[in-house]
Write a structure and sequence with these properties.
It is built from three helices and no strands. It is extended. The protein has a domain at 23-71. Helices cover 46% and strands 0% of the residues. The model has no long low-confidence stretch (mean pLDDT 89). The N and C termini lie far apart (39 Å).
Length: 71
């Protein structure tokens, strides 16, 4: 698809200009807790402890895993 190639080109240009130390992190806000994917890690359930959001961001970038929080 041509439009996807254009977006990828924009992304590559941004990476070169910004020279980021890590890859960008995507965040998705969901309305219902049921919408959280089963494969997403839940800190209390899967790791046995609570986690700050900044810890989850760092962990998600370093081990490439989806981490889900709820209020």
């Amino acid at each position: 698809m041509r439009s996807l190639d254009v977006v990828r080109g924009y992304g590559e240009s941004l990476e070169k200009l910004l020279r980021l130390k890590t890859f960008p992190l995507a965040i998705k806000l969901l309305e219902k807790e049921e919408d959280i994917p089963e494969e997403a890690k839940r800190p209390k359930r899967d790791y046995g402890y609570r986690m700050l959001i900044c810890q989850a961001f760092s962990g998600s970038l370093s081990i490439s895993v989806e981490i889900a929080f709820s209020l």
